C-alpha cells in the first residue's frame, strides 16, 4: 500500500509513542481516530490520524485517495500533511494542528460580526478551493464543520480540513459517486447525474448563505422533502433575517447556488464578484440575529462531528495561561467546571472507551488519580436525555463511574 502513494517517504517506527506524546482524543472516523499529540523532540503540537491497517481491508483505495490528495496540497488555508509513519498494525498521518476552533463557535463568541467579515471568510475558502480545482481536486464535502481557525488570534485565517471524500479529477472526466452532506450537496449529485468541481461552488454558496443568516437554505425533517427542495434549488431570502443584507450578497449567493452547473459561478468568477473583490459588503453589525440562529439551528451537530475542535481550543488556552500539566484535566484549581451545555461542545464519541475517560477528565477532572465519583450528579441524566445509548455504553465500559 505505501508504494502506491506519491510524496515523502513513509517512515517506520517501532513505537510511535517513542516519537510523539499522545494527549487527547480529538475525534473518530469510520476507521480512524484523531489524537492531539506533541513531538517529543521539538515540542510541536500536531494532530495524528491513527488508522488500524486491519480496518482498511477493502478500503485501501479510499485511504490511499485521501493521502494522495493531501500530499499534493500546499496552501495557507488548507490543513497540511506533515509526515506518515507505519508502526505495528497502524498507519499514522501526522497532520498540521489547527487550534483556533470552529467557524460557528467563533462567530457566536464575537460581539460584532458583519457582512464584510463573512465576505473575508468566503474569500479565503474560494481562494483555497480554486487552488484545489486548479490541481484537479474536488473536495466534495465542503461544510462549516470542515472550516477551522488556524489559531486563537482575533484575525486568524480559516483552514479547510477533512479530505476523506476528496477526489482527483482526471482530465476530461466526470464524477458520479454520490457523496457529501445532504444540506450542502449540489442538485446534480442528488439527481445522480455526472458532476464536476462545480459541486464545491454550490457548497460554498450554501456556506455563504448560512454565514449571513445563521440557518440553512434547505431544511426539512423529512429527507425526501429536503432533497426535493435542493433538486429544485428552492430557497428564499426570508424576512426579517435578510432585510439588512445587501443585494450584492444575495446576488453573489444566487450565482453560486445556481441549479444549472454550467451556469453556476466558478471559484474564479466568484472571486471577481463585487461582494468579494469590491466594497459592496456592508459593515452593519448582524451578530445578534446570526448568532441566535446559529445556536438554534446547529447546536445538535456537535454530537456528530468528526473532529473536536473545542478540545484543541481549550488545550491551547491552558497553554497560554501556563496551567497545562500532562495528564491533568481542568479541576477546580485549573478552571471552571463546564456546564452540561458546554459538555455538548467538548466531547466527541463518548460511547468509546477513550471517550468516557476524555469526557470525565475534561469536564470534571477525573483521571490521573482523581475520584470518578466527582462527576456532578446532574450530568448523568442530562447525557442520558441527549443519548441513552451513550449512557448504556458508558455504564458498561466504566462501571466505577458514578453518575448518581
Automatic annotation (TrEMBL):
Sections of the chain in a coiled coil: none
Catalyzed reactions: L-threonyl-[protein] + ATP = O-phospho-L-threonyl-[protein] + ADP + H(+); L-seryl-[protein] + ATP = O-phospho-L-seryl-[protein] + ADP + H(+)
Uppermost EC category: transferase
Domain Protein kinase: 20-276
Localisation: Cytoplasm; Nucleus
One Gene Ontology CC term in the entry: nucleus
Record keywords, A-Z: Allosteric enzyme, ATP-binding, Calmodulin-binding, Cytoplasm, Isopeptide bond, Kinase, Neurogenesis, Nucleotide-binding, Nucleus, Phosphoprotein, Serine/threonine-protein kinase, Transferase, Ubl conjugation
Pfam families: Pkinase
TM region(s), chain numbering: none
Record-stated family: Belongs to the protein kinase superfamily. CAMK Ser/Thr protein kinase family. CaMK subfamily.
Name of the protein in its database record: calcium/calmodulin-dependent protein kinase
